[in-house]
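A brief tutorial aside. Many learners find it easier to grasp structure tokens once they have seen a single protein encoded end to end. The record that follows does exactly this for Roadblock/LC7 domain-containing protein. Read the sequence first, then the structure, and try to relate runs of similar tokens to stretches of the chain.
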Amino acid sequence: MTGTITRLPDLGWMLRPLTEIPGVRHAVVVSEDGLRLGHDSAENLSGPVARLSVAEAESLSAACAAMTMTGRSTGALLFGRGATTRQLMMETDQGFVLFTHAGVGAHLGVATDLEADVGLVAQQMQLLVAKIGAHLSSLPRDEAPAT
């Protein structure tokens, strides 16, 4: 079976309002199956990951998709098959990762440092999704006809 690979537009420019929030380091838009749809990093960062490269953003996208699947299976186990995961938050000793549903087949992930106001970040994520969620959506890919 062969398929057609379509290059998706980079949606990183839409994430700039999030990366301008104090304490936000990186933001990524991820398709449900772990493909990077776009990413952005805050300006003037220091530390081990000062700016996400495309390869790092792709790895982060895959990790975020795995987190979503874990959330989905946990929700189904606890609340039944119809339960969907809306938001996830992970805390590390260096900061937080917030992850939310961002439209059909897409998710939005934001990494912050410890000083970030995670309530404000979560609120701004929801506002961004409400404002441009249709652009963040990733419709399921059509299966290419067999040749």
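Self-check: Residues 87 and 100 are 4 Å apart (CA to CA). If you spotted this yourself, you are ready for the next section.
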